[in-house]
Specification:
alpha/beta; 12 helices; OB fold (Dihydrolipoamide Acetyltransferase, E2P); 4 domains; binds S-adenosylmethionine; globular; 8-stranded mixed sheet; 7-stranded mixed sheet; Rossmann fold
Length: 491
């Protein structure tokens, strides 16, 4: 079939439009609301051929075949508008003020972490690239616009060195070959670079020559690590490492602090954004010098260390042993005395504290994309912190968890978004939750009322409030917070 024209297309937050061709529906990517487009319908999967009527928000861009940068065809201003509208829409009915999105100064080349996979090109060259969206096809990525410029230089040189040394890339289907992935971490503020070669087992023929050639190329690589991963999995790194050059880790500086990053521990991918995120959370958190704080899902202790200047003591909890080891080192190198780190499942830890009725003033939580757990949030009710600072990289799971907070009588006091991942659909959110004083007061009134005619009740001249009315007030409040009216509540 020839080309087809679609006029004034409709596009939501994700920049795709659905077109119908021969009673079948297809998604056309990289389009903008209101545009008129020409689609090449001769292909098995029809694709955008030409934009006939262009949106004023469209910019020239290089095709991003891996699909990781969904917003590279629009201006950064328009991206911010789309993200702001999306987030405000998502939390409508839960939070009543406008949620502001804090932009990044530089929306390109901000990623300090890159991971790529190898393949042999048609001309038998070793090349590394990114997986194409929703597939295991490898798309070469020599000049990725999100990763650090220095990383792009290293990748280009690495490809040449691997080709020269006749390295066999791992073939996922046949399950043969040696080299699977390259994983790079770059310290923007220290200029240190860690290159990790992930191999299928311990053997990498030509390993010494690769290291020698990389050293000779003088690329500013400060450490080289070999990581073994023989598992049939899409997870990039295995559990075991061998250091081939340098210390086996790098340092990155952020704010007033310095952090150790080793291959297996989590570190925010945007160092400049991380500083803005933490400072925003701390400012919104309105902390006191007397506060005891839990930093749950603490990674290598970065938030705990940022918090340490503002509070009495921080307890960081994290499930990954390597990350906790790094957190303890980070505490030492930054000379911090009012932080302690525990290696445990965050839910387990919170439940234990709740059983012991420990005193906690503020809980900071920054869970992975899947969000937190019902038990974790229930434990917060018993710990009764004055404030919860919820940092989330996934607004959808954040929304789910906020309902659980509402069930435990916490309400949203403030929300902001930080654009940690420009040019992609992702952003980070900071939400401040507090115990709802009004509900607590009502609950106390109910209790007083049940005791009926107690001395305190009389002295305070508390008016009789029928329990049914209080339940109604509660229901209204919850409905305003996005709850369904029929939700059964326990008192
Ligand atoms: C989004 S990261 C945040 C890390 C850190 N707060 C930061 O800003 O760098 C989430 C962290 O939670 C950890 N994690 C995942 N599941 C966990 C669990 N059940 N209990 C404790 N930590 C967990 C991960 O290892 C990861 O370090």
């Amino acid at each position: 079939m020839a080309d087809l024209i679609f006029k004034d297309i409709k596009v939501g937050f994700i920049p795709d439009t659905e077109v119908e061709i021969n009673n079948k529906k297809y998604l056309i990517h990289d389009v903008i609301n209101g545009e008129t487009i020409k689609v090449d319908a001769s292909k098995k999967y029809p694709e955008l051929k030409e934009v006939i009527k262009k949106s004023p928000y469209r910019i020239d861009y290089k095709i991003d075949e891996c699909g990781g940068c969904q917003f590279m065809h629009i201006t950064y201003d328009y991206e911010q508008k789309l993200k702001t509208d999306y987030i405000n829409d998502l939390f409508k009915g839960m939070y009543f003020n406008k949620i502001e999105l804090i932009p990044m100064e530089s929306p390109y080349n901000y990623r300090n972490k890159s991971q790529m996979t190898f393949k042999l090109s048609k001309t038998k060259k070793v090349v590394c690239g990114l997986y194409e969206e929703f597939s295991h096809n490898i798309i070469t990525a020599n000049n990725n616009i999100l990763q650090a410029k220095k990383t792009n230089l290293v990748i280009n040189e690495l490809n040449k060195i691997l080709t020269k040394n006749k390295i066999r890339p791992y073939d996922e289907k046949k399950r043969e070959g040696e080299l699977r992935h390259v994983y790079i971490r770059y310290g923007f503020n220290t200029d240190e670079l860690m290159l990790v070669l992930v191999t299928n087992g311990e053997i990498l023929h030509g390993r010494n020559n690769i290291v020698t050639d990389l050293k000779k190329a003088n690329l500013g690589i400060t450490t080289i690590v070999q990581n073994y991963n023989s598992r049939n999995t899409s997870i990039v790194l295995g559990d075991k490492d061998k250091v081939l050059m340098g210390p086996g880790f790098i340092y990155e500086a952020c704010g007033d602090f310095k952090f150790k990053i080793s291959p297996l521990s989590f570190f925010q991918v945007n160092t400049a954004g991380m500083k803005i995120l933490y400072e925003t959370a701390i400012k919104m958190g309105n902390l006191k010098k007397t506060d005891t704080v839990i930093d749950a899902y603490c990674g290598v202790g970065t938030i705990s260390i940022f918090l340490s200047k503002h509070v009495k003591h921080v307890y960081g909890v994290e499930i990954n042993k390597n990350a906790i080891n790094d957190a303890k080192i980070n505490q030492k190198i930054n000379n911090i005395n009012n932080v302690s780190f525990v290696c445990d499942d965050a839910t387990n830890y919170m439940t234990k504290l709740a059983k012991l009725r420990e005193h906690v003033d503020v809980v900071v939580m920054d869970p992975p994309r899947d969000g937190s757990t019902k038990q974790f949030i229930n434990a917060i009710k018993y710990l009764n912190p004055r404030r919860v600072i919820y940092i989330s990289c996934n607004p959808q799971t954040l929304k789910r968890d906020l309902y659980l907070f509402f069930e435990n009588d916490y309400v949203i006091k403030n929300m902001k978004a930080v654009d940690m991942f420009p040019r992609t659909i992702h952003s980070e959110m900071v939400t401040i939750l507090e115990k709802d004083d009004e509900l607590e007061l009502l609950e106390n009134l109910v209790k007083e009322n049940q005791k009926n005619n107690t001395k305190k009740y009389k002295e305070n001249k508390i008016k009789y409030i029928p329990k049914a009315d209080i339940e109604m007030m509660r229901e209204d409040k919850y409905e305003a917070n996005g709850f369904k009216k029929d939700k059964k509540r326990k008192y």
